[in-house]
Amino acid sequence: MTQAARLPLDEIRRRFFSDQPLPGQALPPSILHSWQRCRSLGLPASGRGGDRLDDGALRERREANALWLEAARPVLAGLGELIAGQDLALVVADSRGLILDESGDIAFLDKAARLALTPGMDWSEAARGTNAIGTALAAADSVLVRGAQHYLERNRALSCAASPLLGPQGQLLGVLDLSGASRKLGDFQMRALRAARGQIEAKLLEEAAGSGWRLNLHHDLRLLDSPAACQLLFDEEGLLLAANRAGLALCGLEPGDWRPRHFAALFGHSLEHWLSRHGAATGLLEAGAQQFSARLRPPARRVDAAIRSRPLAPPRPAPAALDGMADSLFASALKLLEADIPVLIQGETGTGKDRLARALHAASSRRAAPFVAINCAAIPEGLIEAELFGYQPGAYTGASRQGSKGKLREADGGVLFLDEIGDMPLALQARLLRVLQEREVTPLGGGPAQRLNIRLICATHRKLRARVDEGGFRADLYYRLCHYPLSLPPLRERGDVAAIAQAMLDGMGAARRGVTLSPELARAIRGYRWPGNLRELSNLLATLLVLADDGAVLTLGHLPAALREEMAGQGSVPGDSAISDLLRRCGGNASAAARALGISRSTLYRRLGKAAK
Fold first, then answer.
1. Taking Cα atoms as reference points, which of 525, 479, 485 lies closest to residue 502?
2. Of 3.90.550.10, 3.40.50.920, 3.40.190.10, 3.40.50.300, which CATH number belongs to 326-487?
3. Domain spanning 494-612: which CATH class is it, in words?
4. Tens digits of per-residue pLDDT, 395-411?
5. Tens digit of pLDDT for each residue in 493-523?
6. What does the buried/exposed string (b/e) look like for 357-379 if buried means 16 or more CB atoms within 10 Å of the residue's CB?
7. DSSP H or E run through 292
8. Whole-model pTM?
């Protein structure tokens, strides 16, 4: 038996929280990495207080998740019968870790309520430390947390198993959790959870499959119709609409990281080519270096463009992916969009206006219809009119012989996003106003007017009211767009920026690779003003993740030198006096002080040596 296996969990906790080294394999990697994430966020082992959502707010959260909850209901009922009499609770949480519902043995539910494991409570890692619900969401993977493996001391009486639920486009919908007294859970319960999750995800994919071509693939022909097969759904043009877990992996997509994929890009030839050769028969298909048996089935119902604008999949992406944005802002914007009221988003550069627009489209009833974006500041003034309204063949010198339908008509049936609308030329503003009023567009060069059915989202970093007063923006267009303007706060005003950074890292796959922030770097992230907002933070984290080895703890030393200097200038980076104070608090233990700062002992001595000169 190894030293790590013999080390009691209480001793492991004592060493971890006193910054002493742990022997290899002292904890499962998923638990250790979660502890490190929690520590980097400054979460004490005693925990922090948290309020239960009031009944009205909880009802709204349930309504936002109603479509997948309804699909899950019969499966959850069956899972509840399976665990009956085992002194367990079945807990359902949303993609942000908020408990939506629970059921199970009354005796344990009473105990769970005393531990705040009850509807309306937040069980994300940031709120409750390492726990099955929050850690499964952070890692996008099933997890078992027993007893004192929980980060918070008061939760050591629990054992919890959880499995995250994915929608047909790989988005995190929520999590299924089984909780009980310590040592009550094991492999049987985890298998039951995964089976329930698989049934729910299959049902959601089946609901999405009605309007798409379904491609099943497997190395073994006999397993083409089994749950283990890759399942991909494509529209008539060969664009990927949805996939199961195996299909996501085949397409190189991580959970929560949906990107457009085309049949031809995946398999080397078009959907039309496959149909001409095989039709609905079984054939062989190559994806990269792999060869599969494959069968393509036609849509269960053939639909026109208007019907295709209905949702393919039930999920509404939770605003968790929008990095600290208030739920109320997202909910208000979605209501405006669904009511066909223009959504105007204002905010500093880099606050995520484009991400909000895409999330609104993905959450709306038009999520299967086009989302067309145009940056009004990035296209030369002489071309933006043609880009928006389209043109007839030969409408102007250099025009395409085939003409162009334009962005407005491309968005027909879907959502048009006009970014930086405050920079739109005045002459073009008049044409846009007319389109919005008449709901039809005439291409450059003449031709009949075309009816339009679009929902509009606009964004700008400018103060539009001031632009109107300056004469740079039409007052009539301003009032047409500005029904209820929404302001995105800068990153520095969105709460704990280190928690947002860790959540963004996890969304990029850091949790699966065991990459975490050091406490020192988390403090620096909190103290920095982030002039580039989310864009600056996201770009930095993506770069650090590419450069980091698996299991790395990111420190100040991983940052570009220029950024370290900026942070130091703002007081975000601990100076030499702060390092000396920390060393004194560690009783002169240089190793403990270096670990707390996320730096090596030699770096610590070097800094102290410079301070002494």
1. 525
2. 3.40.50.300
3. mainly alpha
4. 554 545 556 777 888 88
5. 888 889 899 888 988 889 888 999 999 999 9
6. bbbbbbbbebbbbbbbbbbbeeb
7. strand 290-297
8. 0.75
